[in-house]
Amino acid sequence: MLSSKQRFLVKLFDFILDRFGRLSWQKQDRISGILYRILYKTWGYRQELVRKHLVSAFPDKPHTWIAQTERDFYQLFADWMVELCFMHAQGWEAVRERFEIKNLHLFHEAHQRGQSVIVAMGHQFNWEWGGWIVRKDTLAPILCVYLPLSSPAADTFFLKLRGRYGSEMLPLGKMGARLARMRSTTHTLILMADQSPSDLQRAYWLPFFHRDTAWHGGLERSARLGGYRVLFVEIVQRARHRYEAYPELITDDPRSLPEGEITRRYVAALESSIQKQPHNWLWTHNRWKHQRS
């Protein structure tokens, strides 16, 4: 249960995002510009980490390219913040005009034959908008696995926002039990599969941008147990505040693949996508904090 202070913070988040989200895009872009300057130039939020990641991921790129990609990332990060305000204040219909999912038949044909779908995504902007659109553009129930935030107020706010149109939010630790109860119900499971794993003993280690990287085993295990159709969904920024998502089939028969192959295909697809739009991934996340023993 939230404390009185935490309940106040949730109401404050609601108030601020609602007011900002009702401004014109011109005004919201001005706010985004201010946020960019604070995050990048004044605060330098995780700037050393972002630069370290970019240099390691793209060792052949010149300093000017690294610097420009860094700036583009922080601007997109600031845009994501105002896009959250827009999402909160305006609702699904307004977001739908700016986010389109292609190849929806990959969901429909699986659901029509009673096969559930796993959506394996990375933190490509704007993944928050994508969660809403897939809920409204497909018919099966949506289960979203998430890592609870350290702030109870922020966690409550995001749970309410993400679940507004009926998506069920599953804390990572309760994922297995809930999926076991859903086996007889056709559904879509959304995994942000680029999260760092906490259980390194069960992690898969695969190269990702030239570094041995630990990957959560939940994608692999869930796909095999449930016989899911597995889709990688790439999000592409088409213009400022405009995105398209491209589902791509990883497998229809996960049990037929060698152990670790689903994860390997996901990692390869994610890296290829980031290569095309390097600024469009959450470089502030310390993806390489674990070392293989």
Walkthrough of the structure:
The chain has 293 residues and is of the alpha/beta class. The chain has one domain. The chain has 11 helices and 9 strands. It has helices spanning 4-21, 25-42, 47-57, 63-90, 92-96, 105-112, 127-137, 152-162, 175-181, 218-226, 261-276, and strands at 99-101, 117-121, 142-146, 168-171, 188-192, 204-208, 211-215, 229-239, 242-251. It has a 7-stranded mixed beta sheet with strand order 1-9-8-2-5-3-4, sandwiched between helices. Helix 2 (25-42) crosses helix 4. The longest helix has 28 residues, at 63-90. The chain is globular and about 50 Å long.
Uncertain runs are none
Subunit arrangement of the protein: single chain
Largest sheet: 7 strands, mixed
Structural class: alpha/beta
Number of domains: 1
Q: What is the N-to-C succession of helices and strands?
A: HHHHHEHEHEHEHEEEHEEH
Question: Considering DSSP H and I runs of 4 or more, what fraction of the residues is helical?
Answer: 40-55%
Q: What share of the residues does DSSP label as strand, in percent? A: 15-25%
Strand order of the largest sheet: 1-9-8-2-5-3-4
- Radius of gyration, rounded? 19 Å
Principal-axes geometry comes out as globular
Distance between the termini: 39 Å
Tally of helical segments? 11
Please provide the count of β strands.
9
Averaging pLDDT over every residue, what do you get? 95
